[in-house]
């Protein structure tokens, strides 16, 4: 079962399976003993498990410094059939370790945050027994994510890919009996799973194509031979990469399959932060970066990727402008930022994509977790208000920014970290987001002018909606009773926020212009273009961002919203356009009209007229035909001797006539 | 001799049951359970002696009768294709018996007797290498199942049971004609002998293929011959559904492998695209129809159409990945769908309904049941790490590169079935377990009892086992499939 | 050729006839309450004849100037007839008492009829064929109407009588034509003339066709079958049982022998006719049986259908290579069918409340649950009829279809398959009523009837486990056919 | 006279017999028609016996007559029984068994 080690490698590499097995251990302990251990212990164990994984990743980082070419650490044979020989090996190279580090670092912080957050959330949602389940699912997610990033072949990658999808499904619908009509959360989970599965269809096809083109699914067998195979089968690389892109659009929420991500905000906030902002959704970017060799062999596909990313970046940013739900804004922002990363891959700037991936993981996790802190605080305030007044509190939506306002004073820590996150996202120098986004825009500037414009426009909108959000949430006056009663969250929640804020501030150092640590690090694994710092581009994007924030202040800061029911100032001026954007361009409705509705009709047509009516009707019809004929023939048997005799005579006559004709 | 003992061992239980008085219900249940467990033990004993590379193992060949100088033999043997089916059978029967423990209270004796006869019949089907003997066993499974549905079934049980018999018989009678034709033209009914003397009936290969395929296609069932299946499944008692879905459908797919591919390789190659298209229609159509069902059991029943579509696609990919994947998927479907029916039965025992509209939010009320059911459903949806994935992936990758099918379009279209499977299975999860509890009566539901856990846990263990480490299964399958495909490939060479 | 050996050749027939005559006399002294004694004596007579038949079997002899023959074929059928006779008596005893129609002549007539059948199997001359036919038929006419005063019994008797005589007319006229064509009525003579090509072909063919009609009537082949359901329905059930097996077998006996010995040269003309008759019989029997609610009528139509299956194999009688196969398959099938048929009719006998009453399918409701053994037996019979393994009926159909396919009549075999499928439906309907519908019917099964049920049920299954013996037996019977 | 004349007569008698059975309703008349058919056969036998100068044909006729007599006995007895029951021997009234 277990393969022996093949080449001489630093024994430190052999710890890599622990990135999977530590969280597994966490699950087992929590599953078997969690009930007796209590909430704190459960959370601690889960966090320690992920933290352990992070430590392992650090060890691997250390090991790679001496052996930067990386190793494949075999664990076990999975299955062999025909030409398909799949083993579970861990690929330890500079790329996968970057992913491991980012995921485990953010993951650990979010786990710690969730100890406090889920305690309150579970009480608020009315089922504390699910606390343990939450951490089991979270650890399961880490396992799947680790399998994904450490995979040595496309199939194991797919295993992780589906695994994170499952965890996403389970965690979006974690409060499966809540949401609109009690079912909205569950439906959001379903939507996420099915939409990404549509993408997985593409990924599967890509894997099939790869297998029959290369005769293997192992990265080590495929990437070195791309040139040779591409020469023999022109067009094949295009097909592979485009189908793979389909998978990416599903998982990384790109046009046209992005629609699940906003709904996925139904999950508890740590889930949104971990899965739907920092890690899982970036898997597509990782996949394309990993498969860089294939994309390089298909320039047309690269173009498509670039356009998909860029358009998504702009499109999602537009939608984000008109949202009121604090998490929905962040969700569209995530889609938009993922668009940047995808565009970067299309531009051939994989390093920039990875750079942005990492910084985005920091600041987006920060933003989500902070929003969670706000939501929690509002929920708490709502309940206190209800108790204090003795009457039923007016049940407001604790995620609607119109119900907030003036939180700057009440939640100072949260405000400051949120501000850091927002500025980072807006691309304000010298925060991390500035450098990573700038690298992408610079790459666009080198390659394609239109893309450059699109991305800059998106950057403008990004800064604008973040400004709008900050102003609506933290400035002005409290627009509801709950907002006025809000209090700062406990340290268990705020400490991870502060750490993430620090990471967001200094994250730019990872690939700081001139040092280019990440680039040099990754060039052992993928092909890297030396990126240059273009001052004009940096100035343009910085000034665009500042202008956008200024405009946001002009609209939302000077005259803050007065009441939670008052109209958005933009809505006043833009009218119908704003409504359309607020309704997300009715894309969900469009998809329902174009795909879901027709499929349901078709399925219903199959199920009833076709299956029960026609196909079964034929079978039953044959049976009826036989019995009808039988009834009819039965009438011949009328009991009269003379008709029986007639039948005999008729028989004879026919026989005789036949014989006379023949003889 | 091992195989004779294995095949007929359940009849020992039948003999003991016959002697028990009708009131001794529990004693009868224990007799049946122990008999079936011992049979499982025997099958493990056979497994321990089995050599995957050795072709047909433990063959026993005895003269039975002669008709016009053509011998009909009592010929049993086991190879890599049949051993998994045998193990699946002996593994599931005790579970099915255990699942009927409380559900069946009327005529317990008859029920258990039919069950054990059914086991012998199915083992015979998987082990027989003489065509006539195969046919005898094939039909022998029919009558017990007819009674299981007809006596212990639901409201429309009589309609469903007769439909089941008539559908099956209409195919198998055609097969009988083909068997007779083979016997007349080749002078033997023994499958290995016929394989060696294919030239004697080469002229009629296509017709023979069709006749055999008719019998097996109905059993599998392949679209559009599937309409007996939802009726039979819905009306059958839980244990009957388990056996029907998990084992009896496999008889059809097994028949394709053992007879259609082995005896008529050229016709198989020629018919492969048509069979693949039917399989794909089955996948998409089954999934779509399943999606529209309002009854859990019907949904699971139609999901079988879709899953068996994958199996058939794999088989008619006619390459190692496809066929071996198909065989593994047969096992997977047996385990997963068996478990699904088992669990649907458990909830039916509690609520006496299977309508989606009567459920909702059960995860909150009965978390153990719900958790296990979700695992089983996900395995049915082909989630990696659970059993369904390995088989499906192998099938699809095989079909994708199949030289016989000649086009990746087949697998490409079939792969959309993976999406559709998620659509209807997640609908099932949502309607049953998620959302608020809409039906007051469900608030007092009890979670699984120890007996029920004992039935479902072994299945879940296998679900994880195959999902995580399927290699032992492939080790059993691969050599036999290689041998089979050599034949097919030489036939394909002749054709192209 | 000595007188003694002549008598020895027909010894079993002789025993039955003599026994019948003696019994007729003895019965006068048996008091009315003790008619069971007559029945017992009749059975003993049949047993003695069976012993004699077994003792004299194995050799092929011609006797009485080649009027009769004793060969493997007749040995096989003798056993079948005598066994049927015993079974019929076992069914009758209690039944007659319950229906209050118990009279000693019943058994005597039965013995005469059996004697006629046995002679039929041995006949080697058209005179003998005719005489044997009448000897078997006339007692059956009487027995059908034995329930005097019951109008359905009388109706059935008259119907049977009139149509039977009508059919006899055809056999006679056909015999006359053959005599006219060849100048012989003895089999060897006709065969020799035919072989020499000295027959008038037109007369000969017409004669053969008329004979076919006559025999077709006896075996209940369509379109000459229409008497069957009415007669089986109206006659005492024990007699219907006897008719459905023994009379049919006797009809086939003469059909097989006459066609094999006299008309192999007419295969060209006869085969298409037989093909048509076989197909029509299978279709008619099975389709009309679908809609029956009365068990007796259902079994009647089923017996028509089975005649069709036997004829299906018989279509290829003229084939030099496989002709004997077809006879052998037919004999084997008769055996298989006879067992199941007696069993099923025994259940009818057990169920019949008052004359002709309590025989609807609904009356079977719940029987299987209440009397599992009885239900199982009926299940076995129905499965055997339907040709489902592992029953004798399966092997019977297996053999028949095999012969048909071997002879190249694939389309006929397909019709057979299709109609078999239809038959599955109505046989299973019987099972449905027995096992799947609730009912609380009380049943008193007489031990003798129970014995018949048990023996036939066990035989249908047990013989099917190792059918080779019986196949070999049927083969042997045909090999020794003269 | 040539054989064919006798045969033609025989055939006509046979057909008349058949028609009688087909068309008449009274069981007795039907029975007489049956006898006509038998006698047609007898005539044919005698004719052929004459043609071949063989005794067998004539012997056959004797047997036929004897058997016919036996049938008459049975048939008449049946009719008497039915007449007692129903007061008629019209066969068109005998159709309680059907279907």
**CATH fold description of chain D:** Helix Hairpins
Q: Please compute the radius of gyration of chain D using only Cα atoms.
A: 17 Å
The CATH level-2 architecture of chain D is identified as Orthogonal Bundle
Count of folded domains of chain B = 2
What are the secondary-structure elements of chain B, in order, as H or E?
A: HHEEHHHHHHHHHHHHHHHHHH
N- and C-termini, Cα separation of chain B? 43 Å
Class from helix and strand fractions of chain B: mainly alpha
Give the strand order, joined by hyphens, for the main sheet of chain B: 1-2
Termini separation of chain D comes to 51 Å
What does the model show?
Chain A starts with 17 loop residues before the first helix and ends with a helix. Chain A has 2 domains: 180-589, no CATH class; 591-662, no CATH class. Chain A is mainly alpha-helical. Helices cover 73% and strands 3% of the residues of chain A. The longest helix of chain A has 50 residues, at 587-636. In chain A, helix 3 (94-125) runs antiparallel to helix 4 (130-150). The model of chain B has no long low-confidence stretch (mean pLDDT 92). In chain B, strands 1-2 form a two-stranded antiparallel sheet. Chain B has 2 domains: 1-248, no CATH class; 264-496, no CATH class. The termini of chain B are far apart. Helix content of chain B is 75%, strand content 4%. In chain B, strand 1 (57-67) and strand 2 form a beta hairpin. Chain B contains 20 helices and 2 strands. With 482 residues, chain C is mostly helical. Chain C has one domain. Chain C contains 20 helices and 2 strands. In chain C, helix 12 (267-290) runs parallel beside helix 18 and helix 14 packs antiparallel against helix 16. In chain C, 72% of the residues are buried. The model of chain C has no long low-confidence stretch (mean pLDDT 91). Helix content of chain D is 80%, strand content 0%. Chain D is built from 3 helices and no strands. Chain D is elongated and about 50 Å long. The model of chain D has no long low-confidence stretch (mean pLDDT 91). The interface between A and B is large, with 55 and 57 residues.
């Amino acid at each position: 079962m277990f393969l022996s080690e093949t080449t001489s490698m630093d024994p430190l590499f052999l710890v890599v399976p622990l990135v999977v097995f530590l969280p597994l251990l966490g699950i087992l302990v929590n599953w078997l003993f969690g009930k007796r251990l209590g909430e704190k212990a459960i959370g601690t164990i889960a966090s320690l498990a992920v933290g352990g994984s992070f430590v392992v990743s650090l060890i691997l980082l250390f090991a790679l410094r001496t052996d930067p070419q990386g190793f494949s650490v075999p664990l076990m044979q999975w299955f062999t059939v025909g030409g398909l020989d799949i083993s579970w090996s861990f690929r330890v190279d500079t790329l996968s370790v970057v992913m491991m580090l980012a995921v485990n670092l953010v993951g650990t912080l979010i786990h710690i945050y969730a100890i406090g957050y889920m305690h309150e959330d579970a009480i608020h949602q009315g089922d504390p027994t699910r606390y343990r389940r939450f951490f089991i699912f979270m650890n399961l997610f880490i396992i799947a994510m680790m399998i994904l990033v450490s995979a040595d072949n496309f199939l194991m990658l797919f295993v992780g890919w589906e695994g994170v999808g499952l965890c996403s499904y389970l965690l979006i619908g974690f409060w499966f009996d809540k949401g609109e009509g009690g079912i909205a959360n569950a439906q959001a989970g379903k939507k996420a799973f099915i939409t990404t599965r549509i993408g997985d269809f593409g990924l599967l096809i890509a894997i099939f194509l790869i297998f029959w083109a290369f005769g293997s699914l192992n990265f080590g067998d495929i990437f070195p031979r791309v040139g040779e195979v591409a020469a023999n089968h022109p067009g094949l690389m295009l097909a592979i990469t485009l189908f793979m892109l389909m998978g990416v659009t599903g998982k990384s929420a790109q046009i046209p399959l992005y629609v699940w991500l906003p709904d996925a905000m139904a999950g508890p906030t740590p889930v949104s932060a971990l899965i739907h902002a920092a890690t899982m959704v970036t898997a597509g970017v990782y996949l394309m970066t990993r498969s860089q060799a294939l994309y390089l062999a298909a320039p047309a596909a690269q173009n498509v990727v670039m356009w998909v990313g860029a358009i998504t970046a702009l499109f999602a940013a537009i939608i984000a402008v008109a949202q009121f739900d604090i998490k929905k804004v962040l969700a569209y922002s995530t889609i938009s930022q993922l668009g940047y990363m995808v565009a970067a891959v299309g531009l051939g700037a994989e390093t920039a994509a990875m750079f942005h991936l990492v910084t985005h993981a920091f600041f987006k996790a920060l933003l989500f977790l902070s929003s969670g802190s706000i939501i929690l605080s509002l929920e708490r305030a709502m309940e206190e208000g209800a108790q204090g007044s003795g009457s039923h509190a007016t049940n407001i939506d604790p995620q609607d920014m119109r119900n907030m306002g003036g939180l700057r004073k009440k939640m100072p820590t949260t405000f400051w970290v949120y501000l850091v996150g927002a500025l980072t996202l807006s691309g304000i120098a010298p925060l991390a987001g500035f450098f990573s986004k700038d690298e992408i825009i610079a790459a666009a500037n080198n390659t394609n002018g239109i893309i450059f414009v699109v991305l800059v426009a998106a950057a403008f909108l990004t800064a604008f909606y973040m400004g709008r959000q900050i102003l609506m949430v933290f400035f002005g006056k409290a627009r509801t009773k709950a907002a006025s009663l809000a209090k700062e969250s406990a340290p268990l929640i705020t400490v991870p926020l502060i750490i993430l804020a620090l990471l967001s501030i200094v994250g730019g150092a990872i690939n700081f212009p001139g040092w280019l640590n990440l680039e040099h690090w990754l060039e052992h694994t993928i092909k890297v273009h030396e990126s240059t710092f273009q001052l004009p581009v940096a100035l343009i994007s910085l000034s665009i961002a500042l202008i956008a924030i200024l405009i946001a202040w002009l609209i939302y800061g000077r005259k803050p919203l007065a009441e939670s029911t008052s109209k958005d100032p933009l809505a006043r001026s833009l009218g119908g356009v704003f409504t359309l954007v607020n309704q997300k361009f009715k894309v969900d409705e469009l998809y329902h009209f174009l795909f879901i509705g027709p499929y349901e009709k078709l399925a219903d047509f199959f199920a009833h007229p076709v299956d029960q009516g026609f196909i079964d009707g034929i079978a039953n019809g044959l049976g009826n035909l036989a019995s009808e004929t039988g009834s009819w023939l039965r009438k011949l048997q009328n009991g009269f001797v003379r008709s029986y005799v007639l039948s005999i005579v008729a028989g004879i006559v026919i026989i005789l006539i036949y014989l006379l004709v023949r003889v | 001799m091992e195989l004779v003992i294995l095949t007929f061992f359940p009849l020992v239980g039948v003999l003991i049951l016959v002697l028990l008085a009708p009131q001794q219900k529990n004693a009868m249940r224990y007799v049946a359970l122990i008999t079936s467990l011992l049979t499982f033990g025997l099958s493990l004993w056979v497994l321990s002696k089995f050599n995957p590379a050795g072709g047909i193992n433990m063959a026993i060949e005895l003269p039975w009768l002669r008709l016009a100088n053509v011998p009909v033999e009592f010929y049993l043997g086991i190879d890599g294709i049949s051993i998994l089916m045998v193990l699946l059978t002996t593994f599931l029967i005790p579970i099915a018996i255990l699942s009927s423990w409380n559900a069946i209270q009327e005529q317990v004796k008859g029920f258990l007797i039919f069950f054990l006869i059914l086991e012998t019949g199915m083992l015979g089907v998987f082990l027989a290498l003489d065509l006539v003997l195969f046919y005898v066993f094939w039909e022998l499974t029919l009558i017990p199942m007819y009674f299981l549905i007809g006596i212990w079934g639901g409201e429309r049980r009589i309609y469903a049971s007769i439909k089941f018999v008539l559908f099956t018989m209409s195919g198998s009678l055609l097969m009988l004609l083909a068997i007779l034709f083979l016997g007349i033209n080749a002078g033997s009914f023994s499958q290995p002998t016929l394989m060696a003397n294919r030239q004697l009936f080469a002229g009629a290969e296509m017709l023979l293929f069709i006749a055999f395929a008719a019998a097996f296609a109905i059993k599998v069932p392949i679209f559009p011959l599937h309409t007996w299946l939802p009726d039979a499944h819905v009306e059958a008692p839980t244990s009957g559904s388990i056996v029907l879905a998990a084992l009896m459908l496999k008889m059809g797919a097994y028949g394709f492998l053992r007879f259609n591919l082995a005896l008529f390789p050229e016709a198989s190659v020629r018919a492969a695209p048509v069979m693949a298209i039917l399989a794909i229609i089955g996948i998409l159509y089954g999934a779509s129809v399943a999606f529209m069902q309002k009854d859990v059991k019907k949904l699971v029943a139609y999901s079988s159409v879709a899953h068996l579509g994958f199996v058939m696609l794999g088989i008619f990919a006619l390459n190692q990945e496809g066929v071996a994947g198909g065989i593994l998927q047969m096992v997977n479907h047996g385990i997963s769908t068996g478990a699904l029916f088992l669990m649907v039965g458990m909830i039916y025992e509690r609520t006496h309904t299977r309508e989606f509209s009567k459920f909702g939010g059960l995860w909150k009320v009965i978390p153990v049941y719900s958790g296990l059911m979700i695992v089983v459903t996900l395995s049915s949806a082909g989630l990696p790490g659970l059993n369904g994935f390995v088989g499906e992936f192998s099938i699809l990758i095989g079909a994708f590169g199949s030289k016989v099918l000649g086009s990746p379009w087949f697998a490409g279209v079939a792969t959309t079935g993976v999406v559709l499977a998620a659509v209807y299975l997640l609908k099932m999860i949502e309607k049953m377990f998620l959302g608020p509890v809409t039906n007051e009566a469900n608030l007092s539901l009890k979670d699984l009892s120890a007996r029920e856990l004992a039935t479902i846990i072994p299945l879940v263990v296998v679900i994880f086992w195959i999902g995580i480490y399927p290699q032992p299964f492939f080790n059993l399958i691969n050599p036999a499939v290689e041998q089979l495909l050599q034949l097919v490939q030489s036939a394909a060479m002749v054709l192209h | 050729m000595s007188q003694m050996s002549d008598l020895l050749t027909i010894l079993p027939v002789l025993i039955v006839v003599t026994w019948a005559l003696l019994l007729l006399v003895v019965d006068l002294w048996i008091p009315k309450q003790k008619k069971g004694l007559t029945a017992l004596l009749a059975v003993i007579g049949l047993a003695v004849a069976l012993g004699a038949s077994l003792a004299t079997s194995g050799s092929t002899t011609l006797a009485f100037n080649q009027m009769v023959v004793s060969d493997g074929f007749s040995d096989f059928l003798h056993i079948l007839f005598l066994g049927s006779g015993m079974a019929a008596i076992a069914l009758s005893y209690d039944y007659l008492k319950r229906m209050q129609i118990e009279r000693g002549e019943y058994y005597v007539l039965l013995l005469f009829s059996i004697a006629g059948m046995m002679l039929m199997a041995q006949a080697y001359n058209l005179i003998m064929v005719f005489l044997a036919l009448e000897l078997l038929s006339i007692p059956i006419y009487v027995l059908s109407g034995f329930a005097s005063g019951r109008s359905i019994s009388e109706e059935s008797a008259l119907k049977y009588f009139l149509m039977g005589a009508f059919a006899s007319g055809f056999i006679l006229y056909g015999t006359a034509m053959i005599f006219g064509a060849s100048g012989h009525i003895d089999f060897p003579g006709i065969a020799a003339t035919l072989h020499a090509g000295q027959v008038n072909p037109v007369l000969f063919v017409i004669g053969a066709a008329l004979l076919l009609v006559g025999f077709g009537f006896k075996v209940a082949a369509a379109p000459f079958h229409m008497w069957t359901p009415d007669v089986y329905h109206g006659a005492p059930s024990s007699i219907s049982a006897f008719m459905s097996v023994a009379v049919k077998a006797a009809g086939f006996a003469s059909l097989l022998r006459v066609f094999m010995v006299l008309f192999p040269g007419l295969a060209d003309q006869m085969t298409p006719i037989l093909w048509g008759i076989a197909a029509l019989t299978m279709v008619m029997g099975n389709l009309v049986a679908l809609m029956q609610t009365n068990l007796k009528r259902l079994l009647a139509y089923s017996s028509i259908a089975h005649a069709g299956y036997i004829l299906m194999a018989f279509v290829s009688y003229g084939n030099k290579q496989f002709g004997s196969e077809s006879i052998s398959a037919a004999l084997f099938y008769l055996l298989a069918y006879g067992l199941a048929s007696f069993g099923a009719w025994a259940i009818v006998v057990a169920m019949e409340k008052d004359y002709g009453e309590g025989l609807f399918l609904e009356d079977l409701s719940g029987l299987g649950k209440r009397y599992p053994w009885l239900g199982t037996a009926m299940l076995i019979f129905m499965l055997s009829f339907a040709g489902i393994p592992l029953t004798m009926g399966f092997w019977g159909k297996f053999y028949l279809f095999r012969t048909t396919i071997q002879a190249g009549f694939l389309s006929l075999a397909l019709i057979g398959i299709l109609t078999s499928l239809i038959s599955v439906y109505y046989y299973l309907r019987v099972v449905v009523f027995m096992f799947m519908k609730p009912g609380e019917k009380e049943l008193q099964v007489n031990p003798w009837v129970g014995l018949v049920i048990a023996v036939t049920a066990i035989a249908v299954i047990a013989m099917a486990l190792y059918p080779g013996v019986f196949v070999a037996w049927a083969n042997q019977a045909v090999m020794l056919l003269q | 006279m040539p054989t064919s004349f006798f045969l033609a007569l025989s055939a006509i008698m046979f057909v008349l017999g058949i028609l009688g059975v087909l068309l008449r309703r009274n069981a007795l008349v039907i029975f007489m028609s049956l006898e006509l058919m038998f006698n047609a056969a007898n005539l044919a036998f005698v004719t052929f016996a004459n043609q071949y100068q063989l005794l067998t044909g004539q012997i056959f006729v004797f047997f036929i007559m004897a058997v016919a007599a036996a049938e008459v006995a049975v048939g008449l007895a049946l009719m008497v029984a039915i007449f007692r029951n129903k007061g008629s021997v019209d066969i068109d009234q005998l159709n309680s068994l059907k279907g």
